[in-house]
């Protein structure tokens, strides 16, 4: 009698453990298969709504991050997106007025910071792209950048690479890898490059205060700069012409963001100014129709204010 009861008990225990293991496996499988953990950039309340409303997922963004740093995308496999867009320089190319693409060909413009892109309406200095996806195609195909091709170069390389093929299969199933899949994962990575932990943001949220000099800089900025570099993103939504001749806009450009300007020297869209001071002294003469250069004291105050837009967590964090 006693023996049967014991057997019954241990039988139950075995069944319970099996059920337990089964549940753990099921949850684990679900977790592994879940490719839709969305990242919603937790922007602070002083930020407006984004233009790009598509949500990135953690899984796509982390694959995009790997590709962003991989020379596999370029024709001669020497450079990656990150060669020209380095995190420590807020994703600009530090110290280079123009950058070096595939086969050491030089770009025509200075590599810009990549930040808060979901809040931009137009991309590139001349605003020629209106969707984030177009910026990826541009970088891949441009002979002065990656000098590459999706169907003939990148996709065959990804297929031969077992780690990448496995990752693409997990995200998109067993079908053949498509150009749009690569654009999607890279775009999702770009969607995660958001910066709003600067002193300026702390002040906007009532958690810090500007110094006297920063306040002076803010006053000049409000009067002379914010019509084009619109807070809190500090870029312009449309094109701005430096001059109008007849009914033609001359040299129409997007005003770039001033966030993290401390890290992105040299300055100007061709990188002509190694130091911020030299650009600021003459900048409004070129762009805002002013007839006087800024004084040294005004430039110092402006610079102090602009440095409150530096976000050290952005240049060092390792999310995704
Ligand atoms: C050889 C250097 C180089 C490489 C490699 C490169 N870029 Fe760029 N990138 C630039 C330059 C230069 C510009 C500015 C072009 C212009 O304004 O016409 C730019 C502009 C951009 C912009 C527009 C930013 C804005 O605010 O308008 C994005 C986004 C971007 N690149 C993403 C990428 C991605 C993603 C890759 C890799 C797939 C990449 N870049 C590879 C040099 C590079
Ligand atoms: C009429 C519009 C306009 C006004 C006003 C204006 N800017 Fe600009 N700013 C631009 C444009 C367009 C560019 C890009 C072209 C260039 O670099 O020359 C630019 C570029 C810059 C850059 C270089 C950014 C980089 O990443 O290289 C800085 C810094 C800057 N502006 C600061 C200021 C400050 C400070 C003021 C006010 C004193 C100001 N701007 C007023 C339109 C404007």
From TrEMBL:
UniProt keyword Membrane, yes or no: yes
Domain Cytochrome c: from-to ranges: 59-194, 212-320
SUPFAM superfamilies listed in its UniProt record: Cytochrome c
Transmembrane segments: 12-32
GO molecular function: peroxidase activity
Keyword terms: Heme, Iron, Membrane, Metal-binding, Oxidoreductase, Peroxidase, Transmembrane, Transmembrane helix
Compartment(s) where it occurs, according to its Swiss-Prot or TrEMBL record: Cell envelope
Main location: other
UniProt protein name: Cytochrome-c peroxidase
